[in-house]
Amino acid sequence: MSIPKVSIIVPIYNAGEYLTSCLDSLINQTLKEIEIICVLDCPTDGSDKIVKEFAEKDERIKIIKNEKNLHIGESRNKGIKAATGEFIGFSDNDDLSDTHLFEYLYTTAKKGNSVVSICRKDEFINETHITNKNDVSRNNAWDYFCELLKVNSSIGGYVWNHIYLRQYILDHNILFPDTKKMSVEDECFNIHVYMALIEEKKEIEYIPDVLYHHRRHSGNTGESDDNQEKRIIYRDYISGLILNSCYKQRSDVINFLNEGNITIIYRLCKRLILQKKFRAALNVIFHLNKYKLISESLHESKVKYYFELSIPKNCIYWISKLFI
What we know:
single chain, about 325 residues, alpha/beta, nine-stranded mixed beta sheet, 13 helices, 9 strands, globular
């Protein structure tokens, strides 16, 4: 097979009933010059057998087997290192790709001589699609970078509605964090990409079509306590990244970052307090207070504003007292 135009990296754990439809949507892409790199992350539900059956019928499917469960971040990194395509793209193992997804992303990137192209996505539950209407719709890396610093970002920071020039990613040594330790791996990856694009005065190519379909189901773990704690570690990391960059002098960037830090502590503490895990909530606050940029953003007025929204009144005093 000739050099693929796009390498599609699919980390696979226990995808269950959704894996077949995911792989079907990839092998039926209108862009035929692709390779599909399935990274088997020690699944226990037979997902590996499904992948092998697909690979026997389609030589474009390459299989990588992890010796131990690495989670999605390190699995994607192994896929990046194994990829041979001109561009790399991603898919979650339970999502669906429009048949034109990679053709449109590839031709748009090539036409604009860009290293990154992005399309819109939607979410669906039981085949009911809900389109996200608030995507940033400009070919502007700076706008995307600023959006990603916000917790309530209108773009979400996902990688599966992007493709990236593979050599650019390798040249800048951009990889995913270890998701056993830190979550929000997509946003972390994209922040590094956008910072590099801004520094080199490069832009992205944007497609207004909804071409990627993200499945919501009970197996999604984004709201778990464990994942929320990993998000705090992520905010620590991003705060340090900004403090050690030229953006530390930009008040708008710092404001976006601070608002995000406040929202993260609010969400986790709210969850813990409503579960009556008061000591755990205090530990979160003391942990964050060790980091200069984060603690500076948690001044009294902001904390009271966020916590008074829905946390019981008797908890507000001792939370706010920590920041007086």
